[in-house]
Amino acid sequence: MEPLRLVGTWDFRREIRHADGAEYSADGEARFSVEDDGRVRWAEHGTLRWAAGTTPVTRTLFVVREPVPGEAPSGDRAPRWRVTFEDGRDFHPWTAGAVEHLCGRDLYQGGIEVPVRQAPSWELRWHVTGPAKDYLMHTWYTER
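Above: the chain sequence. Below: its structure as tokens.
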């Protein structure tokens, strides 16, 4: 899915299950907007819940166009996109299907599940393993 199709406001619901049995959930709003430089800002804010309480949560990512080697900026091929952290560090390719990201010694394996045609929802899944992390995270996005 072309990330520009996500521009707008989405509701999200997230479930996080740690290997030790701890469970968390979050819900809130995700806004996708186009920056002046062409990046798509992916800003989430909401509430994280667990057995002992709640806390506000926020995160900002960007979806940026990757340059296509040897192609002029006006080329006709579909652009490839990558997700970066707010500070510009690389996270993963924006592509349907399996993606991986090594964060220190922890491995994020997941995927974006997006319909081929415009749809009112999409999903993101991560299985994170390593010496510091061991959990499954599933997020559902629903268009407002």
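The chain has a mean pLDDT of 90.
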